[in-house]
Amino acid sequence: MASKTKSLCEEKIVPVIERMGYEVVEVEYAKKTDGMNLTFFIDKDGGIDVDDCEAVSKTIDPLLDELNPTDDQAYILNVSSPGIDRPLKTDKDLKKHLGKEIAVTLFAKQNGVKNFEGELVEFDQNTVTIKPLPDKKGKQANQEQITLQKDKIAHIVPIIKF
Known about the structure:
Elements: H1 2-12, H2 14-19, E1 23-32, E2 35-43, H3 50-67, E3 76-80, H4 91-96, E4 101-110, E5 113-123, E6 127-132, E7 146-149, E8 153-158
């Protein structure tokens, strides 16, 4: 049921949101503590605020009522920003972060290391290449660049500095 609901929403609702000028980062239909939740994570240049979420919610709510993607099962509709520290999942996400600092976690250790931090210098269909960050004393790591296989990566997140 969850995959059917998600697929229907991706096919019928996501294009409506995109025509409003937003990127739909993810559609999630999952059980939470308050019951089933249908969540649309949206983004745009400059970020998302509560007014954006409200505008999208008001637009898609009647469309969802008509579409009935949950076959009359009760759910809570959420429209949310994915957050500034959201995982980078797509090539579009990676392209936006070229030249920026990222943290990469592997499923299993590679040469005894599971976590990497560095500047994203390039990526392709199969790999992500980072330039290691200097250590806390400002000393550059010995290895100039590290190339990691995408299928070995558990997740990639931007490094946020305030």
